[in-house]
């Protein structure tokens, strides 16, 4: 067993039923892990059961939004490896053990990225994304190609490294944070396996109009010459993904918790994997 310990931060405010699935997916990882739930004062009944949940460390206090809540959790973290997992996200079986092995095999790496599966509200497969470590020019002027639920980083990046999330961002703070890491030259690597599941609930912050506005704010902060050459960054990004096999995926299966089965993972087989965005069926 790895000697690395994980700290998983989950920001929470009226998360609905999804948080139970998130908690279960962290608790069954069979690695040393502390799961910190940072709640802003939910009044939907969430706190009633969270206060009785022995598998998490609960902190309830006002915050300035999701990224401030994550920072608060990170300041309480004691693990070697950190991550944040939103209430509508899950880890797949064995994910954290695989991430720990990757960090141990690459002691100089600061960030590890896993691949992500998208499901609808009933836990049905929609599509998947196989990721490569982001590059500065593309991330700053085009878009962030990784997902926070599949991202893991060494705690020393925030403490004492100082790479805290900027709470003035409401939707795109992970993109701005990634630009700072890339500009600092933090070594990153792709794990090359599925680690996480993102649930399309219809209320996900990343799909809101305000998220688009924040993305434009980040893009405008990039140097002019970098923005002008954005078509080149898109081309090289796609070529790199093709070279590393990100567009190819054999049939596979995965196991997650669902609203119908919150206490036992359900296995789902994917006969025809889809690597591009696909809206859930009505």
The shape is globular
CATH fold-level assignment: Spore Coat Polysaccharide Biosynthesis Protein SpsA, Chain A
Let me know the number of strands.
11
How much of the sequence lies in strands comes to 15-25%
What string, H for helix and E for strand, traces the elements in order?
A: EHEHEHEEHEEHEHEHHHEE
> Which class best fits the helix and strand makeup?
alpha/beta
How many separate structural domains?
1
* Unreliably modeled segments: none
CATH class: Alpha Beta
Distance between the termini: 44 Å
CATH architecture: Alpha-Beta Complex
Please give the radius of gyration in angstroms.
18 Å
Helix content: 25-40%
CATH homologous superfamily (4th level) name: Spore Coat Polysaccharide Biosynthesis Protein SpsA, Chain A
Mean pLDDT figure: 95
* Largest β sheet strand count, sense and barrel closure: 9 strands, mixed
Number of helices, counting only DSSP H or I runs of 4 residues or more: 9
What would you note in describing this structure?
The structure is a single chain. By secondary structure, the protein is of the alpha/beta class. The protein has one domain: Spore Coat Polysaccharide Biosynthesis Protein SpsA, Chain A (Alpha-Beta Complex), CATH 3.90.550. The protein contains 9 helices and 11 strands. The longest helix has 14 residues, at 230-243. The mean pLDDT is 95.
